Amino acid sequence: MADGHDSEMRPRATFKSFVDSTRDDWMIIGRETAEFNKGLADRVLDHLRILRGDYGGFPIDRLEHSLQTATRAHRDGRDEEYVVCALLHDIGDTLGSYNHPDIAAAILKPFVSEQNHWMVANHGVFQGYYFFEHLGLNKNMREQYQGHPWYEYTAQFCHLYDQAAFDPDYESETLEFFEPMVRRVFEKPKQSIYKKDK
């Protein structure tokens, strides 16, 4: 994607409000948006790198936790989409300090299955099973979802990968190892309000 200066030179719509916009305007916007969207995986990876060095009191930093969660899922034979969800599940920690699962779920939603989206969106409550009692919270908060078709799927994610991924001695794969997977998952949305139904 062109830098800010170059983008000033690119074609732009001429309307001052949407009610005055034309099809030609939206063709320009569509082309520019398509070009910008090609950099989505890069922006996601850049934001993951922000987690490096952020320990928040944990034994390892947030990037290493993300890498370790994804590595554990990968080595356990999970498919690529699942592994990318594992990698990105806490990407919202810096911008959504009080609702980080919502941030990760929103980023992933157009690109993953409903099952994987639900897992990411709700992993915070399920992860709480392992520590909420130490904060005076209800460790069984996840029980509100008992009977949901993806309850066990999400509980398993937290048990096998998320809650277990704080080991300073674990040898994770690098972020570079996961980059091709991230690029493939973010290459084309499966669903979006901006995507035409076939």
User: So what's the overall shape?
Assistant: globular
One letter per element, helices H and strands E, the order comes to HHHHHHHHH
Number of strands: 0
Q: Assign the CATH topology.
A: Hypothetical protein af1432
Low-confidence stretches at least 5 residues in length (pLDDT < 50)? none
Radius of gyration: 19 Å
Can you tell me the CATH class?
Answer: Mainly Alpha
Brief account:
With 198 residues, the protein is mostly helical.
Task: Summarize the topology.
Elements: H1 4-8, H2 23-37, H3 40-49, H4 62-75, H5 80-88, H6 100-108, H7 114-127, H8 151-162, H9 175-185
How is this structure best described in words?
It is a single chain. Helices cover 50% and strands 0% of the residues. The protein is mainly alpha-helical and 198 residues long. It has a single domain, classed as Hypothetical protein af1432 (Orthogonal Bundle), CATH 1.10.3210. The longest helix is centred in the N-terminal third of the chain and has 15 residues. The chain is globular, with a radius of gyration of 19 Å. The model has no long low-confidence stretch (mean pLDDT 94).
Which features would summarize this protein structure in a list?
198 residues; globular; 9 helices; mainly alpha; Hypothetical protein af1432
